[in-house]
Design brief:
It is a single chain. The protein is mostly helical and about 230 residues long. The chain has helices at about 15-20, 30-40, 45-70, 75-95, 100-105, 130-150, 155-170, 175-205, 215-230. The protein is rod-shaped. The two termini are about 70 Å apart.
Length: about 230
């Protein structure tokens, strides 16, 4: 064989030093040099390369054993550390491989109640305990702020309420995209209803409403967003 490594069955009886072309008991730095040299010699022969790697690993294990007995050189210790670091990097890279990441994402399980996080249509259910109290208090606060705040603050209140609904759905187990979609839908529906209210009251010339047109237009949206935070799961 041109590479100098016999691929016949009898060659499997050769010891690692012979495969690497070294005398028994050679220093570990010589083992490292011999490994690199032999890999260059055999080229792309997979069987020969595998035997060289196996021989090197066998001598590395011998060096590790000698290190435990206090009989190893500094070069062997350094090589052992490099091998450990190489294995750690290889394992980390394998974990970040696209296929591996995609497999983990496909195997991820929903954490939402009754599997609602995997459905476009949400379930309607009230939260329990502290969650219900917090959502009720924040919704009431948004409603009060809408009615007492000066003109021009309606957009800020609507924005905060929409974000609150989005976060509420996420915390109850829904995925981000459906949560964002329903937040926008309820906001839009509320603004449409508010526009209809403005037209309705505008046609009633004799009626006087104690809130501004902006507050009246935003009122249905705030109520719907509050209702969504209470019910959407």
């Amino acid at each position: 064989m041109a590479s100098g490594i016999d691929s016949s069955p009898d060659s499997g009886e050769q010891d690692p030093y012979s495969i690497l072309g070294l005398p028994p008991g050679a220093a570990f730095d010589a083992v490292q040099e011999a490994k690199a040299k032999r890999l260059d010699e055999v080229g792309d022969d997979p069987l020969a390369r595998a035997r060289i790697e196996a021989s090197y690993d066998a001598l590395l294990m011998v060096s590790l054993r000698d290190r435990q007995l206090g009989k190893v050189s500094t070069a062997a210790v350094s090589a052992s550390k490099k091998e450990d670091q190489k294995n750690e990097v290889a394992g980390f890279a394998k974990g970040l491989a696209p296929g591996s990441l995609l497999t983990r994402l496909k195997g991820a399980k929903p954490t939402g109640p009754s599997g609602s996080s995997t459905s476009l249509w949400p379930e309607l259910s009230l939260p329990e305990g502290q969650g219900l109290a917090i959502r009720s208090a924040l919704g009431l606060l948004a409603l009060v702020l809408l009615l007492v705040s000066p003109a021009g603050s309606e957009e800020l209140i609507l924005s905060v309420s929409t974000i609150g609904l989005f976060i509420s759905q996420i915390r109850r187990g829904r995925r981000p995209l459906p949560s964002l979609g329903w937040s926008v839908v309820l906001l839009s529906l509320g603004l449409i209803l508010g526009g209809l209210l403005i037209k309705g009251f505008g046609s009633q010339a004799g009626m006087h409403v104690p809130i501004t047109s902006g507050q009246l237009e935003s009122l249905p949206a705030v109520l719907l967003l509050w209702l969504g935070a209470l019910l959407l799961a």
